[in-house]
């Protein structure tokens, strides 16, 4: 196994020996030490009569070989059969991978994903405060927020079928408009306008329009009176006199209405508008007529073309803003987001409410889906083949497996020296 974690701060039982790891194959180091101990043992065996101290070297090398071989067997037996031999109780991990997956899932479920433990932990987590800080400090979180929001919106709009999406949006708008009870809203708006006198400019404009229309179409009135008069009236010229009086009377009436806010005819118009506002709010027959007009308008081709244009304009503007993170949260929207973040950080009641909601949501999700998530862990491990799980566990443990062999060699050698010393002394 190659060195997947070349730098480690501490290793178990290095017997005071600092073994550099940078760029080294620790497996080769452990195997090399075993080979060196074998060479030292053979050499010490050959020269053991030269000096009594050679016996200590031989004892060290002999015991070191035993310790190194024993730990090599133990480490190898965890993941595979030593030397490919089907020795009982070896290749422990591959043979028990299903049980390991089930045990790991049960361990996580019974020790970590318990609703009461999650609830206790969530009590110390200030989610609302963190969100508030993220939103209210553009220098720290605003850039990430703009970039993330723009990327999500742009990718989402780009991934969706625009024809289908446009149809859904336009259909949703039309459905909402059909569900909208327009008549009471119009009645309330008209009633409020009458109460505040906002209808007066409209009446003034209508009177001026009437005067201008009368001035431009006076000849039509003259022609109408002439065509409907008998020959005697036309012969005497009374038709022209009558038409002049009619035009003059209408002009005078319109002038008086323009100059007198309390003119009786204006008051009658206001009474009619007031009655209309009440009928719009309370008369089912009037409301039904307004609803029919609303539906006919929505079915009108011109209105449908307007909705199409509205969708295309909105989609284009949204895509343009989404592709530019600097403008995504600019202007009023950015101010509202910042203000909302500041409110989350300052308002204790809102913060407490949101944190309680988040805690309940997390605990509810763990309670409802915890077992499903852990079953996924168990099923995933079950689906791995023996080589996959062996490689992943070896990589996860890293060099420590080989340091077990190195430590076993060194500790075995020291124990051999100790036993040899006791043997010599006794």
Summarize the structure.
The protein is mainly α. It contains 21 helices and no strands.
List the helices and strands and how they pair.
Layout: H1 26-46, H2 53-79, H3 92-95, H4 97-111, H5 115-122, H6 127-136, H7 138-159, H8 162-179, H9 182-195, H10 200-216, H11 218-227, H12 231-236, H13 238-259, H14 264-282, H15 284-299, H16 301-322, H17 325-328, H18 331-346, H19 348-383, H20 386-397, H21 400-425
Helix pairs in contact: 1-2, 1-21, 2-21, 4-19, 5-19, 6-7, 6-18, 7-16, 9-14, 10-13, 11-13, 14-15
Structure description:
The structure is a single chain. With 426 residues, the chain is mainly alpha-helical. The protein has two domains: 26-95 and 384-425; 152-346, no CATH class. The protein has 21 helices and no strands. The protein has helices spanning 26-46, 53-79, 92-95, 97-111, 115-122, 127-136, 138-159, 162-179, 182-195, 200-216, 218-227, 231-236, 238-259, 264-282, 284-299, 301-322, 325-328, 331-346, 348-383, 386-397, 400-425. α5 (115-122) packs across α19. The longest helix has 36 residues, at 348-383. The radius of gyration is 46 Å and the shape is rod-shaped. Mean pLDDT is 76; it is low at 1-23.
């Amino acid at each position: 196994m190659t060195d997947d974690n070349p730098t480690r701060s501490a290793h178990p039982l290095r017997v005071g020996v600092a073994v550099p790891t940078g760029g080294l194959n620790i497996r080769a180091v452990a195997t090399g030490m075993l080979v060196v101990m074998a060479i030292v043992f053979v050499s010490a065996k050959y020269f053991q009569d030269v000096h009594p101290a050679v016996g200590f070297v031989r004892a060290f090398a002999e015991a070191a070989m035993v310790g190194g071989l024993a730990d090599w067997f133990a480490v190898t037996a965890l993941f595979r059969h030593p030397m490919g031999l089907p020795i009982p109780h070896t290749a422990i991990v591959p043979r028990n991978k299903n049980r390991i997956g089930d045990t790991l899932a049960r361990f996580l479920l019974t020790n970590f994903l318990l609703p009461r433990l999650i609830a206790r932990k969530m009590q110390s987590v200030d989610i609302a405060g963190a969100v508030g800080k993220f939103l209210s400090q553009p220098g720290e979180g605003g850039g990430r927020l703009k970039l993330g929001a723009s990327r999500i919106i742009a990718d989402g709009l780009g991934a969706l079928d625009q024809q289908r999406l446009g149809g859904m949006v336009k259909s949703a708008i039309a459905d909402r408009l059909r569900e909208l009870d327009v008549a009471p809203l119009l009645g309330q708006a008209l009633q409020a306008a009458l109460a505040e006198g906002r209808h007066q400019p409209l009446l003034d404009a209508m009177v001026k329009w009437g005067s201008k229309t009368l001035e431009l179409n006076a000849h039509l009135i003259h022609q109408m009176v002439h065509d409907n008069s008998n020959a005697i009236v036309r012969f005497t010229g009374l038709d022209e006199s009558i038409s002049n009086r009619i035009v003059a009377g209408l002009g005078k009436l319109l002038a008086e209405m323009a100059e007198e806010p309390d003119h009786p005819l204006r008051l009658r118009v206001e009474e009619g508008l007031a009655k209309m506002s009440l009928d719009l709010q309370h008369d089912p027959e009037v409301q039904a007529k307004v609803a029919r007009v609303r539906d006919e308008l929505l079915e009108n081709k011109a209105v449908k073309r307007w909705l199409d244009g509205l969708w295309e304009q909105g989609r284009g503007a949204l895509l343009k803003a989404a592709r530019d993170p600097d403008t995504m949260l600019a202007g009023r929207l950015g101010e509202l987001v910042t203000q909302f973040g500041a409110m989350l950080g300052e308002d204790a009641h809102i913060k407490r409410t949101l944190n309680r909601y988040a805690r309940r949501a997390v605990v509810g999700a763990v309670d409802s889906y915890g077992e499903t998530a852990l079953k996924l862990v168990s099923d995933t491990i079950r689906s791995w083949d023996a080589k996959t799980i062996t490689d992943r566990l070896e990589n996860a443990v890293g060099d420590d497996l080989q340091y077990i062999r190195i430590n076993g060699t060194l500790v075995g050698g020291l124990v051999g020296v100790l036993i040899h010393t006791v043997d010599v002394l006794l």
